[in-house]
Structures are given as C-alpha cells and as structure tokens.
Write a structure and sequence with these properties.
By secondary structure, the chain is an alpha+beta fold. The chain is built from five helices and 14 strands.
Length: about 300
C-alpha cells in the first residue's frame, strides 16, 4: 500500500470517538490537584516520556509531582498558541477547594521548585489567586488523532467566543480520547466529552458563573468511578426539577455500601443538608474502541439503577 493509499484508508476509517456505545458518567480523569504549564512547543505521546522536556528533567518532574497530581500542558488555539513566551504561565489547581493560583515560570525546570502540598505556598514565584475557570480542550494529536480532528476546531471556536481570553486553552491528554472532543473543567475537576460548539459555548458561559453544566458531564475527578456517575445523576435530577445548581453545591459523593464487585451504593450530599443514596450496577458494553486503530473490545461502565433521598 502506498503512503497516499494508507492516508486515504486512515481518513476513511471510523474514529474511536465515533463509536458511542458506553455511558460517559464515571469516566472522568482522576486527580486531587493539577499543575498546568504553558508549553507551545510539540507534545510527545506522553508529555513526560522524555521527548518533550528531555529524559532527565521529565523523570525529575514526574518524581516531584508524585501520585494524584495531574500534569497538563496548555497553549492558546491557533498560531498564537505556537509562539514560545518569555515566561510561562502556570496554574496550581486544587479541585476540592475549587481554588486555583496563577504564577509565571522561566522554564519547565522551575516546576521542580514548586511546593505542591497546598494553596498559598508559592508566593516566591508571585503566585496569586486566579478567579477565572479553565476550559481545557484536549488537542493532543500524538496521543490520538481524534483530539486533533475534533478538539482543535472546538478550542478555536470557544476561544473566539469567550468574553475572557484566559479561559479556553488547548491541552495535552485528559484521558478518554474516545469521547473527543474531550474537556477538563477547572478549578472544579470535571471532565466532559463529545462536545459540540453550541454545548461548548453553554459550558463556558455556565463556568463563568460557576453553574453546574450537566450535558456531556463525565464526572468529577475527585471521586471514584461509581461516585462520579452517582453525582452526575443527582445533578441531573435537580437541574431537571428546575433547581439552579452550582459546582460547589454537591459537596461529596462516596460509596457507603458495596453490594458486590459489580454493584454499589453511593451517598451524594448537598451543602444544604440533603442527601441521596444512589444504587449503581457495573455493566459490560461491547464494541468500545479505546483509541483510533484499536479493535473493538468489551469494557465495563457504571449505570444508575435507583435513587432515593436519605433521611
């Protein structure tokens, strides 16, 4: 097969994100905090595999981050996003507190000097509170072609439409390219998938007011998978009943009972004192294509089977 034939064949092949057979709630990227670093240069398949920052520095950054810390590279959409800045914008994000700090670094090696133990510990870098939400659209082409084909146009559109130039960014892998266009919404730590321009505009507008956006919501990465799905279900019920819901209104979601390996009960709590017990079952879904070029496979997903308000 010639190179042109191969390219034509690839362009005709179905994208992994075109196959929609599994539920999205319960698939969010899980991290307790995030280090977000502006890096317009090329992103390798894994941004800490050594091909982006070099082997030694990548290993040092990975060790410094430790477990539970998400690391995202960002750039602005379009040509402007490929110009290397003199100083690099960085955000430290703490989803549990819905809090983010903005600071500027001279280069990626400065990441090693950051104190990641909690908010307010990096004043030597001029860190200050950032009150803007961050809408990070995955455009990581070397991870999966879906993110380039579907993510880049959406990021460019939302950036043009956003009233605030610091809200929308292209970003590296956010987990779940089969849900492209995939998004990560900070500082709250929610993942979204299969967004179109209209839904994306609504998400950005809602985020600027801190309002919970339910369509295409994959869950909050602070929680395990069944708890993510349960929280999204409760949010959907409240919004469907006409309530105005903000991201910090639902304060916790945690398993209170494990019925067996494939079922769980999750308690979701509202800050006004209400609580719901959500029963979920793990089902198998055939035909899931995890990445472009992979064969369809059977994957588990969480499905809500019941919901009651607890006393």
């Amino acid at each position: 097969m010639t190179e042109s034939q191969k390219t034509a064949s690839q362009s005709q092949a179905p994208r992994c994100s075109d196959v929609q057979v599994e539920p999205m709630p319960g698939t969010a990227k899980r991290d307790r905090m995030y280090v977000i670093f502006e890096w317009p240069a090329g992103w390798s398949h894994d941004v800490l595999d050594g091909d982006t920052f070099g082997v030694q520095l990548s290993a040092q950054i990975k060790a410094h981050l430790g477990s539970g810390v998400g690391f995202q590279l960002i750039r602005k959409p379009g040509r402007a996003g490929h110009q290397m800045p003199q100083r690099h914008r960085a955000y430290l994000v703490y989803p549990e507190q819905a809090y983010a700090e903005l600071l500027y670094l001279d280069g990626p090696e400065d990441i090693l000097q950051l104190d990641l133990t909690g908010p307010g510990n990096n004043q030597q870098f001029g860190a200050r509170p950032s009150h803007d939400p961050l809408v990070l659209v995955c455009t990581h082409a070397k991870r999966d072609v879906c993110c380039a084909v579907k993510g880049r146009p959406l990021a460019a559109h939302l950036d043009q439409q956003s009233p605030n130039p610091d809200v929308v960014w292209e970003t590296s892998h956010t987990k779940g390219h089969r849900f492209a266009p995939a998004m990560l919404l900070l500082p709250w730590g929610y993942s979204f998938g299969r967004m179109n321009e209209h839904a994306g505009e609504q998400l950005v507008a809602s985020a600027l007011e801190g309002k919970y956006f339910h369509p295409a919501n994959r869950g909050r990465g602070l929680y395990d998978e069944p708890s993510q799905a349960a929280e999204v279900a409760v949010a959907g019920q409240l919004i469907g009943a006409g309530e105005t819901l903000y991201y910090q209104d639902l304060v916790s979601a945690q398993q209170v009972e494990t019925l067996d390996d494939d079922a769980a009960v999750v308690e979701v709590c509202h800050r006004d004192g209400r609580a719901w017990h959500v029963t979920l079952a793990q089902e198998l879904f055939d035909g899931v294509v995890a990445s472009c070029g992979k064969n369809p496979a059977t994957k588990p997903g969480w499905v809500v089977t019941g919901m009651t308000m607890s006393s």
